[in-house]
Each structure stands twice: as C-alpha cells, then as structure tokens.
C-alpha cells in the first residue's frame, strides 16, 4: 500500500495533456497574435490561466497542502505569492514610495496560506486585483523599450520577467497538484 495518489489525466485525446484540446481554454482559434507586445501578453494570459487550471476542483485543505516538506510551498501559497509579486512589479515602475506588502513578512505569502475557505477566496481576489492593477499600469506604456521607475527597467523586461515568474511557478504547480490527487498534464 502507498499513500501516493495514482497518476491520472482528464484528457482522453492525448494522455499527457491536462485537458482535451476542445476543452482547453488556452486553445484559441486562428493565427497567433501579431507583434511582440500582443505575443508577450498572450503568453502571460496563458500562464495565468494554467495556474488557475492547476488549482481547479480542489478544496481549501488541498490548496493549502504543502506537498514537499520542509518547503512551505503550496498551490494556495503560489496564488498569494503571485499576487504579492504583481504588486511588487508595480513598485518597479514607479518613482514614488513602494506599495506595502500584502502579506507582511517576507514569507507571509506562503506561511499564511492556511486551509480556510475565506483565505482561499481572499487570495484569488488579491491575485485578480493585483493582476488588473499591474496590467493597467503597464498598459499606459505600450513602448516595450520604454524604461520606467528608479531602476529604469524596460517594459519588455517587466513583461518577460512576469512570464518567467508564472512559467516557473506553473512547473511547481504541476508537481504540487500531482502530489495532491495524482492529476498530471501540461
């Protein structure tokens, strides 16, 4: 006997996929976007959606489960962490005082990810709000070469860094989800 969940996928067409192509909201009809800005935004949108898909169907206890001790990482912690970094990226593009941390301590995003429905709901609301605020702030700067903030970081670098952050954490989410209930897929 083992307490490890059996590996499974919901997909029936391709067994290494998360969902069948017709059921995958990341699949789009037609050609890919034109231009660098639209392409970067499309990749960011897909990684954000991938993270949400990895969390779908789980309860508060499962979302807060720390699957790889002694790490404090959990799916809920990732949601909170990405809300925190979205806020932090806005700090990069301003010359003013930085916005305060959402969750206090440097590790408050992960340490505070507890199995409570209100905490889960708040984390999703925080993530949506912070994503929208960062998107709106960057939309004011459509020139990817424009440099912003005290460090004069280019808009392109900020967008690529955001994609990298989500992509890396989607990899973590793959492993965390598989440890929780065995579901696998891209």
From TrEMBL:
Determine the domain of life of the protein's source. Answer: Bacteria
Its recorded name reads: DinB family protein
| Disordered: annotated segments | 1-35
Alphabetical list of SUPFAM superfamilies matching this protein? DinB/YfiT-like putative metalloenzymes
Q: Tell me which species this is from.
A: Streptomyces litchfieldiae
Question: What Gene3D superfamilies would the database entry show?
Answer: dinb family like domain
Q: Where is the composition biased (Polar residues)?
A: 1-12
């Amino acid at each position: 006997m083992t307490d490890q969940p059996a590996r499974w996928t919901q997909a029936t067409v391709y067994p290494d996929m998360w969902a069948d192509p017709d059921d995958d909201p990341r699949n789009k009809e037609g050609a890919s976007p034109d231009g660098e800005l639209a392409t970067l935004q499309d990749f960011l949108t897909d990684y954000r959606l991938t993270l949400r898909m990895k969390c779908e169907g789980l309860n508060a206890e499962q979302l807060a489960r720390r699957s790889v001790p002694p790490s404090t990482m959990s799916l809920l912690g990732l949601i909170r962490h990405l809300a925190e970094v979205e806020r932090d990226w806005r700090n990069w593009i301003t010359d003013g005082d930085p916005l305060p941390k959402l969750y206090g301590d440097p590790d408050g995003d992960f340490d505070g990810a507890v199995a409570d429905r209100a905490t889960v709901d708040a984390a999703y609301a925080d993530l949506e709000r912070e994503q929208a605020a960062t998107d709106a702030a960057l939309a004011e700067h459509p020139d990817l070469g424009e440099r912003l903030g005290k460090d004069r970081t280019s808009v392109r670098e900020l967008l690529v860094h955001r994609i990298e952050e989500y992509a890396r954490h989607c990899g973590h989410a793959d492993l965390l989800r598989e440890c929780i209930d065995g579901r696998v897929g891209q």
